[in-house]
Amino acid sequence: MMPDKVQSFFYQVPWRSASVHSGAHQGVQRGIGDEFSKHVSLVDYPDARRLDLRQTLRDPYEQIQIRVFKQEASTPLYALCDLSSSMQFKGHVSKYETLQAIAAAVACSAHENSDLFGMVCYQHRVLPELSLAPGHHAQQSFDTIAQLTEVEAGPQDGQGIVEATAWLGQQKGLVFWISDFHLPLSLIEQSLNSLSNHQVIPLVLWDPQEYERLPRLGFGNLQDPETGQQKTIFFRPALRARFVAQFEQRKQALDQLFARFEIRPLYVTGAFEAAMLSDYFEQLIQ
């Protein structure tokens, strides 16, 4: 049973799925489908229901010819969820709640299209109790996603992404990496290399209040969300502007890194709507 407020989105995979399970995508296995593959003899493929009389009459070896079609197949969709401390930020919206909404939309879309849904959550290490192997168990998926906002707060870095990439299956799939990407660029690059067998969709969760609510003039406390360490800084307009500029520089660095892997990220700076991902995939196929 799907939650009432969860919405699905349009998506499409640009490869042929090697799955033996039927689905909605182009596959490589022969079977029931609309896409013609080739003609073979009745001896090689004994299914008289697909007899092609015209091709049989044309065959110089006088063998009965059968039409073979490619079966439409399923593909796995993964929600790769960053639950590190920086994701505990709550500004206009809660990052954890946005992550939960995105994961639920991915699960809903997968189940509506007869695809498999899997999820891997991580902090400093992978969280097995909040991770799911790819499957068709819709209720289990939504029950686990509902627990994401109950993760215990505390200083946790995101080093578990290295371990998390190994939890994904070998079959090529769509990986929705949901994070604020406040990680070292070298770690992000290492993870993207490990995910090279998949198509990765980075969903970058940023909130303008991460830098807008800094004081314009006066003392302010800054806390490193990954370590919990606090610093007291005297803010002035120039310093505040430097923080804002650093976010823009970070965006440029992320864009350049993703571009090296031919990946286009999706920045989510407010409430998430499933239509954002539909637009994302429609632009990819244009």
UniProtKB/TrEMBL annotation:
Residues 47-251 form the DUF58 domain. SUPFAM superfamilies: vWA-like. It comes from the Bacteria. Coiled coil: none annotated. PANTHER family: BLL2464 PROTEIN. This is DUF58 domain-containing protein. It comes from Methylophilus glucosoxydans.
